[in-house]
Amino acid sequence: MKKIFTILKVPLTCLLFKILIVFSFAGSLNAQSFKAIIADSAKTHVMILGTPHLESLGDQFKPSLLNNLLSILEHFKPDLICVESIPPYLLEDMERRKNKFADVINRFAKLRMEYGHEMQQKLNISRQKAEERAAYLYHMIKDESGRIEKRTELVQYLFASYDDISALLQWSYLPETFRSKYQKFPEGFCDYLNNQLESSNEIISIGISLARKLELDWIEYVDDHHDKDIFLKIASDLMAELRDNSEYLAAQNSSFYVESQQRLEEATQRGDLLPYYIYINSSDYGIRDMEHQWNLWFRTKLQSGLDRTRMALWEVRNLNIASHIRRATAMHPGKRLLVIIGASHKPFLESYLNQVVDIKLVQLKEVLDNIY
Hints:
Helix content: 55-70%
Strand order of the largest sheet: 3-2-4-1-5
Distance between the termini: 45 Å
Mean pLDDT: 90
Number of strands: 5
Structural class: alpha/beta
Strand content: 5-15%
Number of helices: 21
């Protein structure tokens, strides 16, 4: 007891300093030797689901194409679903720095921002205050009495906080008869929400569809575009220099990507995308994608070095995404997370997350084969 009280008498700042020294020392260790001394079953299980952007299928897309995939993912039972979209707080940061990120906002979050601003004005509230109100309303919707009214209110505050995907999930839980007749949102808002629920976008067709099956409350955002302040400065010069580059031109007609497109078309015609998802989430696909798409930037050998800059910025984005995923795991230790993201990100993210002390990576094929 005497030793315990002695430790407690140490000022908090000193204690934190000692902890930092310990972590600084640990950081110098070989990454592979610094692993959590717990069973794999106790680790936080993360599946990186590489995906094509399904909107490219156009009129060929049908929700039934994903039935078998969703069945496998439902068996994985993620406690949290993460998607390739910019976190609300980072979107607010980009909004403050419009001089650098206006193009990013217009490309990746235009409607999201417009509806967010509209809801902020309607509710007379800031983004951060709307986020706080939404957190309170999540608890309120657990109560049966007045659930429809509270859920409808929650949708508004989620939009005002730039959390449009969780808002759409909450909207989907409301009865269809209610959704089709509701008139208290700004003009055109309900039509937008209802149309979005029919979208082929994988965030909705996979993420929200699965979240509904599992009765989850929200979706987590893990994308990042803070590399774009540099990339947008170099993009035109990079493309100009690549125009006559033989390595770059050869890569545009790679048989690997022709084969991949053929597989996607065949799976679509057969009415089941699961075989294609197994293919693009395989280690073989990841290795070939790295060789054709990313090692390319070391073969072009541009005099300016902008090819190397392009590669570095791609890694910056993926490192930031990996950080967002790790942040998402912080409040879900020992749980299961599903990350739905473009397939080209998968090899990078798995490489980074494989270094994290208490994360176990899970593959789609493992779940399919009942190994998991």
